[in-house]
Amino acid sequence: MDGFYERFGERVRKARAALGMNQQELGSAVGLNRTSISNIEKGRQRVALHMLFEFADVLQVEPESLLPAPGGRSDVLDELPEDARDWAQSVLAKVRREAGHG
């Protein structure tokens, strides 16, 4: 189960970084402190199910995009090199923001 929370935390971190948001800003937006966000991103702190929707709303992503693939499978973005993955995440976040405004 720890691997699940580590992968969840990594997805939160990537989505946060794609928005150019720091841990303090994310924490304030979802009602947690920066230390909690750091622990969540490292997989050391578990989150209540309702918080999935809080994170998704603030990070402008679909809730399911923060959940690791079933059975530990990787998703398409996990196959990209780190620098390309971050770029792809930022492009997806921008497209989602623009789609939400139009």
Structure summary:
The protein has 102 residues and is mostly helical.
Key descriptive features of the protein:
single chain, 102 residues, mainly alpha, 434 Repressor (Amino-terminal Domain), globular
Total of DSSP H or I helical runs spanning 4+ residues: 6
Categorize the overall geometry: globular
> What would the average pLDDT be, to the nearest integer?
86
Structural class, by secondary structure, is: mainly alpha
Tell me the CATH superfamily: lambda repressor-like DNA-binding domains
Helical content, roughly? 55-70%
Distance between the termini: 39 Å
Number of strands: 0
Unreliable residue stretches: none
* CATH topological fold name: 434 Repressor (Amino-terminal Domain)
Could you explain the architecture of this structure?
19% of the residues are buried. Helices cover 67% and strands 0% of the residues. By secondary structure, it is mainly α. It is built from 6 helices and no strands.
Topology:
Layout (H helix, E strand, L loop, with lengths): L1 H17 L4 H8 L3 H8 L7 H11 L3 H4 L15 H20 L1
Helix pairs in contact: 1-6, 2-3
